[in-house]
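Retro notes (design track)

What went well: tokenization of the new backbones is finally stable.
What didn't: we kept losing track of which sequence belonged to which structure.
Fix going forward: every design gets posted as structure first, then sequence, in one message. First example under the new rule, 110 residues:
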């Protein structure tokens, strides 16, 4: 029979306990801003179209952001997780190149 001096494995005797984690071990992903940069050559209508097509902006929002970039040199199109931001930048840069516009799109960590 098992007595007080019987060797025990972890978890099956007095003085042994399991501490359960109650905090969910999740981490919020880092976020990245996608920015458009101003230049002297890309037509305003093209920039508005980019904002509508790739960032789902309304005509009003797209015009507001485009004019902000035109006047201040840089403006935010949206905030995304790393891979989504990277995809947006690639899509915009490919689209601008295809139409032979020098429009630049970049991402930065928030
Ligand atoms: N500055 C450009 C022009 O006068 C318009 C423009 C706006 C270009 C925003 C790029 O990200 C940009 N035609």
């Amino acid at each position: 029979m098992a007595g007080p001096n019987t060797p025990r494995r972890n978890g099956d005797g007095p003085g042994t306990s399991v501490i359960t984690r109650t905090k969910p071990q999740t981490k919020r992903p880092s976020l990245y801003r996608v920015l458009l940069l101003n230049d002297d050559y890309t037509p305003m209508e093209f920039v508005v179209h980019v904002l509508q097509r790739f960032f789902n902006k309304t005509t009003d929002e797209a015009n507001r952001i485009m004019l902000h970039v035109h006047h201040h040199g840089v403006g935010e199109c949206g905030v995304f997780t790393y891979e989504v931001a990277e995809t947006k930048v690639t899509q915009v840069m490919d689209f601008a190149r295809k139409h032979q516009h020098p429009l630049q799109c970049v991402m930065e960590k928030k």
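Added context from the reviewer: The two ends are 65 Å apart (CA to CA).
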